[in-house]
Amino acid sequence: MRPPNIPPQPVGRYRPWTGSCYTTQHRAPCRPGDQSASGRFHRLITSPLKILVVPVLVLVTAGFFAPTQSVSSGTAHEFLSNYFSEVVQANQRQALYFDDLTPSFRSSSSWVSFDAFWETQKSVTVVAAVPVPQSALEFQVNLIFHPLNGGVIEETYNFWFGCKGFFGILRSRVPSLGCPLKDLEIDNQQLASGGAPA
């Protein structure tokens, strides 16, 4: 008995992005070895993608579901130390006014009054920045002012922070991370004790 006349089956090529084989018309079995070689290529490409995509997905998910933003004590202290060391320098002051203060803060403190006050200060020391309970973006900050005309003024302020930028805001909603230093800005300040306003 003659065997049935079975046409040869097309042999496909491995498609690494889908994990399947194909011909010009339809999917077909792979040649021996094709899948393993292409599979290695597939894993080589997708592994770095996973490393990049997974953290972004975590941040986006946290950004949608976490209720509030936050900032760590260390980040707040470092930000204020940098801010006060630069704001007393005339060539840095205007950039800080627009980059490190929120629009709502600037609306309550004009550039003219801001510049006029800081022209009278030689330096400022940040003694401590303590988080205010039940307020993730508020800190009580102890400052020592050194005016150009001499003397020392010790004051305590409450500072409220904001976080800017898409990824900065997302990260600020992850409690274990908080707003990154480069995206932090001052939203408000209020004198808690002491004398002259800053």
Explained architecture:
The chain is of the alpha+beta class and 198 residues long. It has 2 domains: 13-50, no CATH class; 73-163 and 175-193, Roll (Nuclear Transport Factor 2, Chain: A), CATH 3.10.450. 39% of the residues lie in helices and 26% in strands. It is built from 6 helices and 6 strands. The strands form 2 sheets. Strands 3-4-5-6 form a 4-stranded antiparallel β-sheet. Helix 1 (34-65) crosses helix 6 (166-172) and helix 3 (90-99) packs across helix 5 (111-118). The chain is elongated and about 105 Å long. It starts with 12 loop residues before the first strand and ends in a 5-residue tail after the last strand.
